[in-house]
Amino acid sequence: MELTVYLAGQIHDDWREEVKQKAKERNLPLRFVGPQTDHDRSDNIGEDILGKQPSNLYKDDAASNINNFRTQVLMQKADIVIGLFGEEYRQWNTAMDVSTAIALNKPTIIIRPTSLIHPLKELSNKANVTVETVDQAIDVLSYVFE
User: Fold this and answer.
1) Which residue among 20, 52, 99, 129 is least packed, with the fewest CB closer than 10 Å?
2) What are the residue ranges of helices labelled H in the chain?
3) Taking a C-beta distance cutoff of 8 angstroms, is the pair 129, 109 a contact?
4) Given pLDDT bands bounded at 50, 70 and 90, which one contains residue 30?
């Protein structure tokens, strides 16, 4: 049985590669999908498809529509969603994706540091599992296959 895992979270470091590598080391039958991690591609996709927009407002709106479409398609196909909240970046997209996963009744794991316990308390309460590290999330995924 192979499961598809949507990796929601910031796109500015290699945390997704860490998850993939640790899952591979345990021979977990997982396929990973997630948001567009090429920041420029994500920001410019609206104009790449629809052409030059009259202002940044319209540029962002066009890109958001297409990025949200992509996220919806991939998340609906996912069996599990992992959302990583870090300390360094604003986490609006992560919060939106995790909320969407919960609304879609997707099994959801949140990874967050202890410093974010309070600001994420409601979201953590709605997720299936909340952990503090990627290793703990991998342990949860591994348990599915025992």
Assistant:
1) 52
2) 15-25, 39-50, 56-77, 92-103, 121-126, 134-144
3) yes
4) very high
| CB atoms near residue 132 (< 10 Å) | 14
Other C-beta atoms closer than 10 Å to the C-beta of 39 total 10
Q: Is the pLDDT of residue 87 over 90?
A: no
* Element of type H or E holding 32: strand 30-33
pLDDT score of 62: 98
Strands ordered across the beta sheet of 3-9: 30-33, 3-9, 80-84, 108-111, 129-131
For residue 86, the model assigns a pLDDT of: 86
Whether residue 88 has pLDDT greater than 80? no
* Residue 86: closest CA among 4, 16, 6, 5: 16
Q: What CATH architecture is 3-37+77-144? A: 3-Layer(aba) Sandwich (3.40)
Residue with tokens 């609906």: 76
Q: Which residue has the tokens 């300390």?
A: 87
CB atoms within 10 A of CB 101: 27
| 25/118 Cα distance (integer angstroms) | 33
Identify the CA nearest to 7 among candidates 27, 30, 28, 26. 30
